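Before relying on records like the one below, remember that each one covers exactly one chain. Contacts with other chains, cofactors or solvent are not represented anywhere in the record.
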Amino acid sequence: MAVLEFERPLRELEENLSRLRNAAEAVDPGELEALEAKARALRAQLYGDLGAWDKVQLSRHPDRPYTLDYLQRLTEDFVELHGDRLYSDDHAIVGGLARFRGRSVMVVGHQKGRGVKDAMHRNFGMPHPEGYRKSRRLMELAGRFGRPVLTFIDTPGAYPGLGAEERGQSEAIGQALATMATLPVPIIAVVIGEGGSGGALALGLANRVLMLEYATYSVISPEGCASILWKDGSRAADAAVALRITAEAQRHFGIVDEVIAEPEGGAHRDHDDAALRVGDALERHLRALESRRPENLCHERYERFRKLGRYTAGDPE
């Protein structure tokens, strides 16, 4: 498992504990218990006082569960559907029909890769226009057959390359948003890692938006923001604070509806527990939405996003 810089003291302590457990017959049980208590205290201290930049790093952790990891644990009979019927199949977005806790649903999500070869195959989770056109096609299919849509958001952003721009990246994102705005079925989005820019929002125009505790959601990456504001990408940590990029900040401003607590130390430490927590939250919100009439779902979705960014102007002095 990859180790982030702030996690190193904890990882060293856990490795010592592991060695002691393997030699348990020769170790004083009291010493082992003391070290376990020290590890618990250090873990609580480290993850109880994380800054915005620490959470950015956790949201990008290479061992964090991705969309297919969640689908493997949360769904049955998943049938992946491919292609946008216009150009090609984009492997940075996966989707298809599945059964989620007894319900037939459509699932769509960004997919990063593990290891260099797979990461390149998935374009590091950065979709091309055909990825968003594929997501739009699947959502239209869900609307036609009355299937709820579950989306999993985890991308640094839409791919900004020349080919993507030539094939209409912004138009593809805009059409995806327009489709989600009028879809006559419940849509629930979960930010499971990075929620970067319009590439994330293209799967995020939902009736309910949920976010994992150490995920991030922002109009731009901290590095990009620092480069624009201060002409200095090394100030990314300052930009992360200014952007209000964390889950709690997003909930405070009404951008997300619920923050899902992660297993102690982050979702990368326990994929099964993380998936269970996400599944319980999805089921709860889906149960609340599935009795809504189609026109009410669209209206509530419209009102939800229209009210974002409201402010009260004070009297001029």
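The mean pLDDT is 88.
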